TrEMBL record, chain A:
Keyword entries, A-Z: 2Fe-2S, Iron, Iron-sulfur, Metal-binding, Oxidoreductase
Matching Pfam families: Fer2, Fer2_2
SUPFAM superfamilies: 2Fe-2S ferredoxin-like, CO dehydrogenase ISP C-domain like
Residues annotated as domain 2Fe-2S ferredoxin-type: 3-79
InterPro entries: 2Fe-2S-bd, 2Fe-2S-bd_dom_sf, 2Fe-2S_ferredoxin-like_sf, 2Fe-2S_ferredoxin-type, Beta-grasp_dom_sf, Diverse_Oxidoreductases
Keyword Oxidoreductase among record annotations: yes
Taxon lineage: Bacteria, Bacillati, Candidatus Dormiibacterota, Candidatus Dormibacteria, Candidatus Dormibacterales
Name of the molecule in the record: (2Fe-2S)-binding protein
Pathway terms, separated by semicolons: Alkaloid degradation; nicotine degradation
Superkingdom assignment: Bacteria
Molecular function as annotated in GO: 2 iron, 2 sulfur cluster binding; metal ion binding; oxidoreductase activity
Species for this entry: Candidatus Dormiibacter inghamiae
UniProtKB/TrEMBL annotation, chain B:
Top-level taxonomic group: Bacteria
InterPro entries associated with the record: CO_DH_flav_C, CO_DH_flav_C_dom_sf, Diverse_Substr_Oxidored, FAD-bd_PCMH, FAD-bd_PCMH-like_sf, FAD-bd_PCMH_sub1, FAD-bd_PCMH_sub2, Mopterin_DH_FAD-bd
Protein name, UniProt field: Xanthine dehydrogenase family protein subunit M
UniProt keyword annotation of Aminoacyl-tRNA synthetase present: no
Domain FAD-binding PCMH-type: 1-173
Upper taxonomic lineage: Bacteria, Bacillati, Candidatus Dormiibacterota, Candidatus Dormibacteria, Candidatus Dormibacterales
One GO MF term: FAD binding
Alphabetized UniProt keyword annotations: FAD, Flavoprotein, Oxidoreductase
PANTHER family per the UniProt record, alphabetical: XANTHINE DEHYDROGENASE SUBUNIT C-RELATED (PTHR42659:SF2)
One Pfam family recorded for the sequence: FAD_binding_5
Amino acid sequence: MKHRIAVTVNGKEREAEVEPRLLLVHFLRDNLGLTGTHIGCDTSQCGACTIHLDGKAVKSCTLFAVQAQGHELKTIEGLAAPDGELHPIQQAFWDEHGLQCGYCTPGFIMAAAYLLDQNPSPSEDDIKKGLEGNLCRCTGYVNIIKAVQTASRTMSGAAQAQPAASGA
Amino acid sequence: MIPAAFEYARAGSVQEAASLLQKHGEDAKVLAGGHSLIPLMRLRLAQPSALIDINGLKELDYIHVEGGRLRLGALTRHVTIQHSAEVRQNLPLLADIASEVGDNQVRNMGTIGGVFAHADSAGDYPTLALMLDAEVVTDRRRIPAREFFQDLFTTPLEADELVCEVSFPVAPGSHRYIKFRRRLFDWAIVGAGAQQVDGGWRVGLTNCGPTPVRCTAVERALSEGASVADAAERAADGLSPSGDLRASPEYKKHLATVLVRRAVEQAQTG
Ligand SMILES: Cc1cc2nc3c(=O)[nH]c(=O)nc-3n(C[C@H](O)[C@H](O)[C@H](O)COP(=O)(O)OP(=O)(O)OC[C@H]3O[C@@H](n4cnc5c(N)ncnc54)[C@H](O)[C@@H]3O)c2cc1C
Ligand code: FES
Ligand code: FES
């Protein structure tokens, strides 16, 4: 039997009839055409499918779409500004060369966004631990860690600049 | 891969979950965090006829400290246990262990009740439960940890029985859990825990047999004044781990003695 679900994806209300066995990642990719969320494994280990569910990083291959009923989802497509300006984490991955083939990148960026939300100034060890659920076969991780460090600096700079600007 | 088709129903209460399980019969299963069940379904190693989703049952998501016990609702997620001040104060070893279950994404979904019901030999909380004589509370009875883990993936739970709570005695003393693995997010190849309780030691092992293991020979040797190094040699007594892709039985037995020694030593030095 199909189930009706209503979810908010990147700020937009979406409704659909889904079979219970439809994985959330397939719903995002196949039903909504949001193919930025990737599938890298069959064993819930690689993190390529990482999205945010009510602000928490989750592996969208390890939830059924029916479980998202009534929840708020954010995918990599929801990160950049509406005018196309990259999110500071996306920009930092670009600037620090935090990717090669790019397959793992959306998952890493969503995991990093969650990490920086929980801990805006992580140490190198905090970053390694915070990204332990994501695998990259290309970069050797060094530039990914640099990208997160750079993003942390730009984002905390932006956070400090804001109150000063509004006070002026 | 795509899981086999199944019926899906959301439970609005513990009673409703039990009656939905009865209605859908033997092959129906509870869906909690889904982080053991869905991977198995994706590989079609599990093909339940129906999933009863208990994620809406807020009454199973709590942490209480009461009468010398730390009680955790079955739906308490690993991330909540990891960051809980109550757990940190009353049973810090449980918070340490929670922070090393899987990765951030796994901890945001997986639940303590799911770990017990699933009874994987590499599950981390069950070792602590056995060491401390914790209890699993279901919708119909209380089951001591030593009777709960019967075999690999095998517990006394009935098909329509719901785990509602896991209850540990408070134990704020010296402690350490060491998880030996090749990659950060992996399950333990072998895990070893040491917890001081009333001046004595409780010691246990993860993934050294079909169920968690309590190292009573080590505990006894320590209480009789043996050195930690000598006592830890007893960790391999009576152990018959099965080999797997990552470790042979001999290697696991060796790891058991080394990790038990380190766990007790590091617990002592804080
Ligand atoms: C990449 C990865 C790494 C992991 N690493 C570790 C690790 O290092 N250590 C570790 O311990 N675990 C690890 N896990 C497993 C994780 O902790 C799971 O969350 C846990 O084993 C199962 O809990 P769940 O809530 O996800 O249960 P589910 O997957 O929803 O359920 C598991 C089983 O228990 C039953 N069940 C669940 N809740 C109840 C209940 N309240 N009453 C009755 N039956 C119930 C289900 O029907 C099912 O059979 C890992 C998982 C992944 C994907
Ligand atoms: S696709 Fe690999 S963890 Fe989800
Ligand atoms: S850049 Fe290729 S897998 Fe990470």
